[in-house]
Design a protein that fits this description.
single chain, mainly alpha, Arc Repressor Mutant, subunit A, 4 helices, 67% helix, globular, signal, 60S acidic ribosomal protein P2
């Protein structure tokens, strides 16, 4: 989750396609040890669609989840 949170913060700051190096730097700057392998996998999965589309689809799935 920490990798995704860093990616989303970079995206919210105006970076449409954050790189592995940028996510790693952000995490290191706040004192978190990043995992390059996990970040690479995450970025590959996130480049399939725009971030706002993925968030919207996730929100729809979350809304249909049983309580």
């Amino acid at each position: 989750m920490k990798h995704l949170a860093a990616y989303c913060l970079l995206a919210l700051a105006g970076n449409a396609a954050p790189t592995t190096a940028q996510v790693e730097k952000l995490l290191k700057d706040v004192g978190v040890t990043p995992s390059k392998e996990e970040i690479d996998i995450m970025i590959k999965k996130l480049t399939v669609k725009k971030l706002h589309v993925l968030c919207h689809e996730g929100k729809q799935l979350h809304a249909t989840a049983p309580l």
